[in-house]
Amino acid sequence: ITIVFLNNTLKLLQEHYTKNNYREIKACLYGKKEFSKYFIDRIFFPEILSASVVHVKSVSCPNALIDLHSHPINHCLASKKDVENFKELKAVNPDILMVIMCSKNRFAVYE
Asked: Residue 36: CB partners within 8 Å, gap ≥ 6?
């Protein structure tokens, strides 16, 4: 899997991550998929319902290509709850990826 960030989406994501280093973030990434490449050209930060250093709950990301949230720095493994939520998303949208941002430049991708 290759994720290509277009239109400054990576920079916006990194800035949001840095500004919110006291809590997890959530982002909905939109674009198109061509074979195993995901081209991301839009990013949306949904309303956060609750968040802490180890948890984030937000409104859903309808039709997102990538469902992204952060974890504490260098903790890149998905939790049991992450996996359960992702299975539900995957049942509705088989192309969706779950991405965990675990530092400004480090990501874990789940398909």
From this structure: 1, 2
DSSP letters for the chain: -EEEE-TTHHHHHHHHHHHTTTS--EEEEEEEEETTEEEEEEEE-PPEEEEETTEEEE---TT-SEEEEE-STT--SPPHHHHHHHHHHHHH-TT-EEEEEEETTEEEEE-
pTM listed for this prediction: 0.93
Residue found by looking up tokens 């994501």 in the block: 13
Look at phi and psi of residue 19 and say left if phi exceeds 0, alpha if psi is from -120 to 50, else beta: alpha
Phi, psi of 69 (to 5 degrees): -145, 165
Q: What is the pLDDT of residue 92?
A: 93
In 3D space, the residue among 30, 52, 48 whose CA is nearest the CA of residue 39 turns out to be 30
d(CA 43, CA 87): 22
